[in-house]
């Protein structure tokens, strides 16, 4: 039987064109490559911006963007958005030209997405700001409170605890941004850094001002309240971290395949059975814990606003999951089990 | 983040007559017509009240008191317009409309009503008259638009009077807020101080100052927006006259 198999194999090899080669080629035809012609048109004015001929059919959109960038150096690839239809969705960088529904002459509509900035830069600025700003208020730097309080320390233990929790939260986020998160879009519009930083930095200053104020009033129910809140906070921080790790492990580096997240051996991930975006759930829980711990109205406002934003994001992600996967578990809610 | 900006004399509804409205249902249209007619009538009552009071007293001073109640009633009633946008019978942005109506309501209640001492100021008359003329024109504009019989005069008035009324109203509003400042500071009106168990504080005096400051970026934007609308609406009149 082996001999027969070997024979079949050898004849097959002679007849067929060399199949397992790393270079992908158009399958049916012979070794001739059909080059594509690519035309780039402005999406708004419909003005023809560039005509490329002899484009490899295996080029990706990113290659085409790079070529466009050569002739228009002010538009680096990250700010280009190429579409097949002026009102359609932007094409992904990794899409291959020959897999697109175009003939051998492809027309792409170009729009400028504006100056871009790396997501990592935005995330890190968002997190370093609150970390440092809170500490400025904690150490009571001059010009914040009355001069007699400069560089003094609060007499309430909860204030020190709150500083540790707040700082821990942002340090954790910074480390996650550096080592754990895998984001699909490399960049975002430049104005996001101003928007996001204003939001985080202003709220951090607002909260820190009151918590570290000389006239701060500790929680009504004292130690009990603080300890319960601390447990909630820590539990949710660990939970959030577990989810971020689980989400990272879903994607292999470089692969753009999307997968449904599932509960793992870690009990903190078991919430995946009920929620699509438990990272937001745990984040909400952390801030609720922090609010109860400090009993501070501005913190409550921050928690509420954050909750609204995260709900919007969670619902968007949930919708995308359901669109992408037919067999997406129906028991899951976007952010709060059974409620939202 | 920051305080909502205050009174825009002319509420800029982005739904404008030249565009073909998809038409709310017949019932909604009837309701809107009634609403706009009632509002027009209300502001006419305020206008008449002002004129009569002026003729009776012989001076511009203290006319606010003669129209205080209808002003509060009809300006607060404008809150319904937010609902109209939210429900969809009016194709405007909820956020924009909300912003404009709330700023008017803020000035009416949280400044003029709350700080009694400013009620006799002349600046109050300045913005009340600006609002009155504006609203009469605006509501009759909507009424006629809904009935598809918009006289050119009303359209012209709506897109021209704002050139004077808007700055006039803004001046009145700013002067009124400015006049209220010392009293707010003295009495600590609407302010919360530390320490308290919610670890929160609010200084209404500072809030009012920030409000005044917010006029600086917002007023020009809205004013120039209306000017652009004016060009669009009134210059296309030669092409299609809506009668």
Automatic annotation (TrEMBL), chain A:
It is found in: Endoplasmic reticulum membrane. Residues 36-112 form the TECR-like N-terminal domain. This is Very-long-chain enoyl-CoA reductase. It is a multi-pass membrane protein. Residues 187-340 form the 3-oxo-5-alpha-steroid 4-dehydrogenase C-terminal domain. GO terms for molecular function: very-long-chain enoyl-CoA reductase activity. Pathway: Lipid metabolism; sphingolipid metabolism; Sphingolipid metabolism. Its main location: endoplasmic reticulum. The chain crosses the membrane at residues 117-139, 198-216, 228-247, 268-285, 297-316. It comes from Umbra pygmaea (Eastern mudminnow). Belongs to the steroid 5-alpha reductase family. It catalyses: octadecanoyl-CoA + NADP(+) = (2E)-octadecenoyl-CoA + NADPH + H(+); (2E,8Z,11Z,14Z)-eicosatetraenoyl-CoA + NADPH + H(+) = (8Z,11Z,14Z)-eicosatrienoyl-CoA + NADP(+); (2E)-hexadecenoyl-CoA + NADPH + H(+) = hexadecanoyl-CoA + NADP(+); a very-long-chain 2,3-saturated fatty acyl-CoA + NADP(+) = a very-long-chain (2E)-enoyl-CoA + NADPH + H(+).
From TrEMBL, chain B:
GO terms for biological process: fatty acid biosynthetic process. It comes from the Eukaryota. It catalyses: (3R)-hydroxyhexadecanoyl-CoA = (2E)-hexadecenoyl-CoA + H2O; a very-long-chain (3R)-3-hydroxyacyl-CoA = a very-long-chain (2E)-enoyl-CoA + H2O. It is found in: Endoplasmic reticulum membrane; Membrane. Pathway: Lipid metabolism; fatty acid biosynthesis. It is a multi-pass membrane protein. The chain crosses the membrane at residues 32-55, 76-103, 159-184, 204-224. One of its GO terms (molecular function) is very-long-chain (3R)-3-hydroxyacyl-CoA dehydratase activity. The keyword Membrane applies. InterPro entries: Tyr_Pase-like_PTPLA (IPR007482). The keyword Lyase applies. This is Very-long-chain (3R)-3-hydroxyacyl-CoA dehydratase. It comes from Umbra pygmaea (Eastern mudminnow). The lineage of its organism: Eukaryota, Metazoa, Chordata, Craniata, Vertebrata.
